[in-house]
Specification:
The complex is a heterodimer. Chain A has eleven helices and two strands. By secondary structure, chain A is mainly α. Chain A has one domain (about 10-115, about 140-290). Chain A has helices spanning about 5-35, 40-55, 60-85, 90-115, 140-165, 165-175, 175-180, 185-215, 220-235, 240-255, 265-280; strands spanning about 130-135, 135-140. In chain A, a hairpin with a 2-residue loop joins β1 (about 130-135) and β2 (about 135-140). The model of chain A has no long low-confidence stretch (mean pLDDT about 90). In chain A, strands 1-2 form a two-stranded antiparallel ribbon. The longest helix of chain A has about 30 residues, at about 5-35. Chain B is an alpha/beta fold. Chain B has two domains: about 5-145 and about 290-365, 3-Layer(aba) Sandwich (Rossmann fold); about 145-275, Rossmann fold. Helix content of chain B is about 45%, strand content about 15%. In chain B, the strands form four sheets. Chain B has a five-stranded parallel sheet, with helices on both faces. In chain B, strands 7-6-8-9 form a four-stranded parallel sheet, sandwiched between helices. A three-stranded antiparallel sheet of chain B has the order 10-13-14. In chain B, a hairpin with a 4-residue loop joins β11 (about 345) and β12 (about 350-355). Chain B is globular. The mean pLDDT of chain B is about 90. Classes of the chains: A mainly alpha, B alpha/beta. Chains A and B meet through α1 and α10 of A and α2, β7, α7, α8 and α9 of B.
């Protein structure tokens, strides 16, 4: 395989890997805070992209994206307060089922609000036909925005959880809910913030990728499956692992096109994933402790 | 007691309502429709749905068919063959429809071909695969141009442009696989070599990896055969990869929204399709021009969006059905089928239809023109 082609596959994998990683990070934040898998995670990416595409017609692009992220974060927090908190006592499993229901609700609402049309966002720099070259490989400048924002999310979150009081409080809640309560931390509030953050991150991912992949009301389900795959692949609860696993899955997908038809790339990646999970059920970097959460 | 107390007003209401209803004289004619209004084929199914509602409204305002009002029952299949089958059965068995128009996609049409054939209910498909009407099934018709005609138009254009080595990419659907098979079948007739031929997932949102592979095969042109939003993505990805190969699309590209989604990357795409989207450029002598202009104007006024050839397919299906029921003077399925087979020089949006017992499509090669994209608009392709 010539070098240009290999590089081309790498760039292609980078875009996908970054998006999967961003969605997986969203899964992890909520998992750490509550122990549930939020299957509405993909819908946040959809909401972000769709809201931004609507606003982009009215205000400058940067403002549209910022507002879309803020609005989606607010709706993520609201969803937790309005719906999930009510079923929290019923247990983790019922909450997970509730998130599946919520994802359907959000999707259908989006269909009513935006219709079935496919939408795009303007490219953040350049336009549809802009292209950068690197050692004979070509790619859209948007690739930098996608990879860069995922890197920024990862770095920002690491700093947030390590250095800020609120980040530490959230970690405390995650490690020992009762203990954190006794120390004066309100676990309910932390969970709401976790949902807000996770929705905001999903929305940002949905915005940066929209110029490349386009967006419509139904993209959420597939992103949620891929994001969950990546989260499980890396080990639930670990954001750095999610990025590594996301990139690995992205590369696997793009390189698989060299050998099998594109239509079957999901088959290849899912086979590899299943094999890995049989060998190491906690994921690449996961531990037994992290996979035994209770709300 | 309670039941009795509401019984009288309820009966009164029913009587009053039925007197007010214009359909009181006779039962309405029920026509079923299966469109992929949402899902991957939404850019086809949604305009079909809107057109069908518009046409039926027009028919009812004009006095209906044979003096009876028309009741259109639309089912949204989301372009899923499984759903199309269960909707077809529901329409036939529970709603007792006279005929079914749609489905939107070739895969769905093939899936319900047998259902309609066994039930003896006429089906007028809005999808393009040749296999829908070849071999001919007694009750199954289709209104879009056959995919083999589209392929021959593409190859003729390539011959003129001196293109001999191409790459084919198609979405993994009935439409995509049908087109890919036709492209492979006719390539040698036109001296074209297909260097690489691949299918991709119909929900694909990034095709750079696949296109890099196609590019590495050293092709002069790429033919993309799909109906999904991937059509815009292919255009963008090719430009981002700095590919110099000419991009050809199938007639699945004939919705201006795909051009808008691809932006500047859509410039110069060439594809074959019916005349509807270039109606304004046709000479006044063209027999279809008036009809096309009227349909475009009506649709755009009502829905505030540009018309597409796909909506035109629903228009054709309904107007053919109306003409057939009127000339048969009955809604008997066999009589409708015979009446459609006897339609001659019937002007539709896709072309001039001439059906026969052996030809359930009724369109010829000349129903197709080559179209290109210039400054974000569709325009007739006139060669270089």
């Amino acid at each position: 395989m010539p070098l240009e082609l290999i590089l081309q596959y790498v760039f292609s994998g980078l875009v996908y890997g970054s998006i999967y990683a961003a969605v997986a990070i969203g899964f992890n934040i909520i998992y750490n805070a509550t122990g549930i898998i939020n299957f509405a995670q993909g819908e946040f990416a959809m909401l972000g992209g769709m809201t931004a595409s609507t606003l982009a017609g009215l205000v400058p692009l940067w403002l549209a994206v910022t507002a879309a992220v803020a609005l989606t974060a607010a709706s993520g927090a609201a969803i937790e307060r309005i719906f999930l908190r009510r079923v929290a006592r019923a247990g983790v499993l019922k909450m997970i089922v509730a998130t599946i229901g919520l994802s359907i609700l959000i999707r259908e609402t989006a269909l009513l609000a935006w219709g079935e049309s496919v939408r795009t966002l303007p490219f953040f720099s350049g336009n549809e036909v802009s292209s950068l070259s690197f050692l004979g490989a070509h790619f859209s400048p948007q690739v930098f925005w996608v990879a860069g924002s995922t890197a920024l999310i990862m770095a920002g979150l690491t700093a947030f959880f390590k250095f800020t009081l609120m980040g530490k409080a959230m970690r405390g809640c995650s490690a020992n809910r009762d203990g954190a309560s006794i120390c004066g931390i309100d676990p309910g509030r932390m969970v709401t913030i976790a949902f807000g953050m996770s929705a905001g991150i999903g929305a940002l991912a949905g915005c940066v990728v929209a110029p490349l992949t386009q967006t419509h009301y139904a993209i959420g389900a597939e992103l949620a499956i891929k994001g969950f795959t990546v989260a499980a692949f890396g080990g639930l609860g670990n954001s750095v692992a999610a990025v590594i696993a996301g990139l690995a899955l992205g590369m696997l997908e793009s390189f698989s096109t060299a050998f099998v038809p594109e239509a079957y790339k999901d088959v290849v990646t899912l086979c590899v994933l299943l094999a890995l999970l049989f060998a190491k059920p906690t994921g690449l970097f996961g531990s037994r402790a992290a996979s035994m959460k209770e709300y | 007691m309670r039941i009795r107390s509401i019984a009288k007003p309820a009966v009164l209401c029913a009587v009053v309502l039925s007197c007010l209803s214009p359909a009181y004289a006779a039962d309405p004619i029920k026509i079923g429709a299966i469109f992929g209004v949402t899902g991957p084929a939404a850019y086809l199914g949604a305009p079909e749905d809107r057109t069908a509602r518009m046409v039926v409204d027009g028919i009812n305002k004009g006095g209906g068919i044979l003096g009876r009002q028309v009741e259109l029952i639309v089912k949204d299949s989301g372009a899923s063959s499984e759903k199309a089958i269960s909707f077809a059965k529901q329409l036939i068995e529970e709603e007792n429809v006279v005929a079914i128009i749609g489905p939107t996609t070739s895969g769905e049409s093939m899936a319900i071909k047998d259902v309609c054939e066994k039930a003896g209910i006429p089906l007028i498909s809005c999808a393009s695969a040749e296999t829908i009407v070849d071999p001919v099934a007694k009750y199954v018709f289709k209104v879009p141009q056959k995919d083999n005609y589209i392929v021959e138009w593409l190859y003729r254009t390539m011959n003129k442009l001196g293109i001999a080595k191409i790459g084919v990419i198609a979405s993994n659907t009935g439409f995509g696989n049908g087109g890919k098979a036709q492209l492979e079948k006719y390539a040698s007739k036109y001296g074209i070599t297909i260097a690489i031929s691949e299918v991709y997932d119909s929900n694909a949102t990034d095709l750079t990896a696949l296109l890099a592979k196609v590019n590495a095969a050293g092709v002069q042109a790429v033919v993309n055969w799909s109906i999904e939003p991937a059509q815009s993505i292919v255009a963008k990805n090719m430009r981002q990869l700095k590919m110099t190969a000419q991009l050809f699309q199938s007639h699945g590209f004939a919705n201006i929204k795909y051009v808008q989604a691809a932006g500047e990357a859509a410039e110069g795409i060439i594809f074959p399709c019916g005349r509807l989207i270039v109606a304004g450029e046709l000479p006044d002598s063209n027999p279809q021009k008036k009809l096309l202009a009227k349909y475009n104007a009506d649709y755009e006024a009502l829905y505030n969006e540009e018309a597409s050839t796909f909506g035109g397919h629903a228009y054709d299906a309904l107007s053919i059905l109306k003409a057939a029921i009127e000339s048969a003077g009955s809604t008997d399925p066999d009589k409708i089928v015979r009446a459609i087979e006897n339609l001659r020089n019937f002007s539709g949006t896709a072309g001039i239809f001439n059906f026969s017992p052996a030809d359930h499509n009724g369109l010829l090669m000349d129903s197709i023109v080559m179209v290109t994209v210039k400054k974000g608009k569709f325009t007739l392709y006139r060669g270089n």
